[in-house]
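thought: fold this chain, then report.
action: predict
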Amino acid sequence: MQSLVEHARTFTEHVAANAKDFERLADGQTPEALFVTCSDSRVVPSLITGARPGQLFELRTAGNIVPRYPGRDRPTGEAATIEYALCVLQVRDIIVCGHSHCGAVGAILRGDDLSAMPAVRHWLEHSTDGRTPPADAGDLPGAVQAHALAQLDTLRGYPAVRERLADGSLGLHAWYYEVHTGSVSVHRPERGTEFARL
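observation:
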C-alpha cells in the first residue's frame, strides 16, 4: 500500500509537467471506446492499448461479464455504464477483452464449487446463464475467447447497442490478452470464431 500512497502523493508533479493535457480533461471527456474487461489486476487497459487519460471509458467486472439488459425494474451499474458510454459519450467502439489465466472463466469451465463465495457463484451462474459455449476442459484460452464472443451477443440485446449498430455508428470487438506475453489477439468475424494476433 505504501508504494501506492507515495505515487499518489507525487502525482501532482506528473500533472504539472503535462498541464495542457490535464487542463483539457477538465473540460470533459470524449473517449474513443468503451473497454469491457475483467477486474483482474494483471489486465491494465491503458497499458495494453497505450491509451492516454480520456481515451478509454472502462467497465470492469469479474470475468468481463456483461449481464443481460435489466430493463427499468432492476437497474445495474453495468447497464448504466454501457448506456452512458453510448448515449452521452458517443463512443464509436466497444471492446470486450478476455485474458489468459482468467479465474472466472476457469471456474465456469471446471465447474468449481463456489459455495464459499455465494456472490461470485451467483454472478457467474446468473450472468452467464449457460451462454459460455462448452470447450475442452484443458482449453482455457479457447473458452475465454468463446466467452468474450458470448458477451458481444449479450451486448447486442441492449437497446442503445441495437440502435447504434443499426445506423452503422458502432463497432463491436472481441479481444484476447495474454498476460505472460503481452500479445493481443482479435476476433475476425470473417473467420468464424477464430482469433488472430494483432
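thought: worth noting. The first helix runs from residue 2 to 17.
final: C-alpha cells above.
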